[in-house]
């Protein structure tokens, strides 16, 4: 419910024109909800606890009795901690999966209905990071190099009409200005 209240009133992504402000707002809300790791892919959920390693101790003949008891009590404490982590792991995993599912639903609900189809391929696995990366790739402003390459390509396009052979768009525009 905290997650829901944080995302309540979140902006809707319509396209490239509002991606920058939308993504910033969603990232801020995800940070407040402690869910930013789900967006950037750094939160992989809880890991299954590993049993404590059995340490081969120094032979008892070289240990004092007190050291042997300390080693044994340490092993017992580590085993008890492991059993506690093991017992809570299924619940921790279920809570993480629920949070991941909730964030996925909230994120996909922040998409305009005309672009909500982009979330479909990530729906079954509730892949929040995959959806986030896909939206970033599709709607973020590209680099200056990308824009300049597109601009050069546009200027080098050739225009053909019956009165003039093949001329670039820049040449065509210049001809129109000269008239």
Kindly describe this structure.
It is a single chain. This protein is mainly alpha-helical. Helices cover 62% and strands 3% of the residues. It has 8 helices and 2 strands. The protein has a two-stranded antiparallel ribbon with strand order 1-2. It is elongated.
List keywords for this structure.
two-stranded antiparallel sheet; 8 helices; 2 strands; elongated; 179 residues
Q: List segments where confidence is low: pLDDT < 50 over at least 5 consecutive residues.
A: 58-62
Structural class: mainly alpha
How much of the sequence lies in strands comes to under 5%
The beta-strand count equals 2
Oligomer: single chain
What's the structural blueprint in terms of helices and strands?
Elements: H1 2-7, H2 16-32, H3 36-40, H4 65-109, H5 120-123, H6 128-139, H7 144-155, E1 158-160, E2 166-168, H8 169-178
Antiparallel strand pairs: 1-2
TL;DR of this structure?
The protein is mainly alpha-helical. Helices cover 62% and strands 3% of the residues. The chain is built from 8 helices and 2 strands, in the order αααααααββα.
